[in-house]
Amino acid sequence: MTATQRSRSPLGQASRADDSPRRILIGTDTYPPDVNGCGYFTHRLATGLAARGNDVHVVCVSADGPPRIEYRDGVTLHRLRSASVLVHPSMRVAVPLGVTGHVARLIDRLAPHVVHAQSHFTISRAAIRCAKRSGTPVVLTNHFMPDNLFAHAYVPERLHRVVGSAAWRDMVAVAHEADYVTTPTARAAELLAGKGYTRPIEAVSCGIDLQRFHPRPAERRTARAHFGLPDRPTMLFVGRLDVEKRIDELIRALPRVLNRQDVQLALAGTGQREGELRRLADDLGVADRVHFLGFVPDSDLPLTYVAADLFAIGSVAELQSIATLEAMSTGLPVVAADALALPHLVRPERNGYLYPPGDISVLTERIVAVLESAERRAAMGTASREIAAQHDHERSLDRFEEIYAEVRPGRSGSPARRRTVVGLPQARVRTVKAA
User: Fold this and answer.
1) Locate the Glycosyl transferase family domain: which residues (predicted)?
2) Buried-state track 152-164, b at ≥16 Cβ within 10 A, e below 16
3) Is the bond leading into 10 cis (omega within 30 degrees of zero)?
4) In a 10 Å sphere around its CB, with 0-12 CB exposed, 13-18 middle and 19+ buried, how is residue 227 labelled?
5) Do 9 and 154 share a domain, yes or no?
6) Cα 330 from Cα 308, distance rounded (Å)
């Protein structure tokens, strides 16, 4: 009899006292030092759960190739052998050979109470399938958007529709193997349902650390000096400098804004389009107003928002946008593309404005509307903080711990209390029952 079989109840869930810590295995194909929203969320989830006394294990790729076990921030990291992605040297993926066997042995040895997968790629897929075979409940959180992969994989634009459809079918097929599925927002849940996922989906925010990201207007000048920025009104973007982020729209709007307001654009992050964006700024005569901050260490990240007066994002592929939440938590007004989940965060004329993606004229007017009035900026910043408070990371951790307690292998949660699953089109709205 295996360790897994010895420790499991007849229902397949590990036996435990209701108030004892859980052993949680998180399967993810991206984790710090990777720089992306899914990796950051997974790190916060793992460390947050560990801080609450849970025994948290993360199976992820090695940051430099060789496999190893690491202990960081109260979390045990099981890093699998990895290889560089030839088309994107900064990315690494698990070497497929042996992944399934390694994950199966890990689940058998640890006997986790639940497995929480963060994608449908190599490691996460293996974690889901090995957990199902062992009778371990599986939760899957979807962060996937094909648009975020097209540039990295150099998929020609003419093939986006075909490749995207195939990628969604694959993702949905894997999602149907999970016992419970969450997404960061109701809009992301609607998108997943529209792609063919037919079971209940719950929107659980990725969350934001309200203590780490908080307003510090008195430190704005010092923060600008820290990053070598001139002391003038600053518009900020934080994230990868890649095609789906549409940073070129912010640069194209800049000359028009400068005709009416003094401003500079700070870009915190790296990516494939940096050279192209630098050339664009130079061609438009605004190179002296566009500042490339490069990779910002996590310890300095909150300070980037403190340095700004306004956060702007033109991305059309955000299932939530952690960077936007961080900006809002810091008390910044937001100008964002009216696409996917961003409208869930930006309330027009309350904490910022939306603009039609690609419409540089409207984008210009929205930026000017924020910059031209200090009183409006202050009021919108206050509203941003209030809205961000609804996404408190501690609240998200509460809900995930509840889900871990409720989920059962092979079917949706068992009854006692009913919980509405949000984010599905009306025809697909269902309820799940929670213990």
Assistant:
1) 223-386
2) beebeeeeeeeeb
3) no
4) middle
5) yes
6) 10
Whether 173 and 202 map to the same domain: the answer is yes
- Whether the CB-CB separation of 81 and 95 falls below 8 Å is answered with yes
Tell the residue number behind the tokens 């007017």, with chain if given.
365
CB of 75 closer than 8 Å to CB of 360: no
Q: Please, what are the averages of pLDDT over each run of 10 residues along the chain (435 residues)?
A: 34 44 93 85 95 96 92 96 70 80 95 95 94 96 74 61 80 94 90 92 93 94 96 95 91 97 95 93 97 93 97 88 94 94 91 96 97 94 96 95 92 35 36 34
What CATH number corresponds to the domain at position 280? 3.40.50.2000
Residue with tokens 């109701």: 186
**Confidence at residue 271, expressed as pLDDT on a 0 to 100 scale:** 85
Q: Which two tokens stand for residue 143?
A: 């962060």
Q: Which three-class secondary structure state does DSSP give residue 156?
A: coil
Q: How many CB atoms lie within 10 A of CB 184?
A: 29
Same domain? 384 vs 398: no
Sequence-distant (6+) residues with CB within 8 A of 165 are none
Residues contacting 379, CB < 8 A, separation 6+:
none
Looking at the fold, whether 79 and 195 belong to one and the same domain comes out as yes
Residue 212 resides in a domain: no
DSSP string of 270-288, one letter each residue: --TTHHHHHHHHHHTT-GG
Q: Are residues 143 and 31 in the same domain?
A: yes
- Interval 36-88: pLDDT, tens: 888 889 999 999 999 999 999 999 999 888 999 999 999 999 999 988 776 56
| Same domain, residue pair 33 and 158 | yes
Amino acid, single-letter form, for residue 277: L
Residue type, position 418, single letter: R
Distance CA 96, CA 100 (A): 8
Same domain, 322 and 409: no
Per the structure, the complete domain to which residue 385 belongs is given by: 217-391
Does 176 lie in the same domain as 59? yes
